[in-house]
Amino acid sequence: MREPNVYVSAGRLPRTAPAPEGPRPLVAAEVHALVRRLHEEYWHRYGSDPAPVGQVEASLVPWDASDAAALMGELASVSLLWPSHAYMDRDEADAVARRVVAALGSGACWWSNRDDVSVSGVTGATMDTLVTGSDGDRFVVLIQVEDD
User: Fold this and answer.
1) Sequential pLDDT tens for the chain (148 residues)
2) What is the spatial order of strands in the sheet that 138-146 belongs to?
3) Is the separation of the CB atoms in 109 and 133 below 8 Å?
């Protein structure tokens, strides 16, 4: 059986004193926790360890909300490795992504490990791309992982 390729985690961030850089370090820790858990469940046999939390944080590039919603819809619906393979209907994925972005509100911060020209992998797999956001209290992360 093939492992899933798209993973989502959401919840509340730990209560801490406000950091000057905002929720980014806490969000990076949540991304790392998801990646570590998935590595232990599925990917440990591929041989590469996931990035440490500091590298995950360093990989997070700011995105605006509309672009983050579009990326979330793309990652939920289309395979990174096999673009002709659809995980779900793109219109449905985009609608869900817009609801997620709206739920965190206009003050939310959004990041991805993808910038204009490259992706900073965090899983140790062949390909991964994530989008994550937080309103300072709640967070969401969606990651797609592919290994050939």
Assistant:
1) 355 689 999 999 988 766 667 789 999 999 999 999 888 887 666 667 888 999 999 999 999 999 999 999 999 999 988 888 889 999 999 999 999 999 999 999 999 999 988 999 898 888 899 999 999 999 999 999 887 6
2) 6-12, 138-146, 127-134, 109-112, 61-63
3) yes
CA dist., res. 2 & res. 146, Å (int): 11
**Predicted TM-score of the model (pTM):** 0.91
Q: Which residue is listed with tokens 């990989």?
A: 59
State both tokens at 77.
């619906």
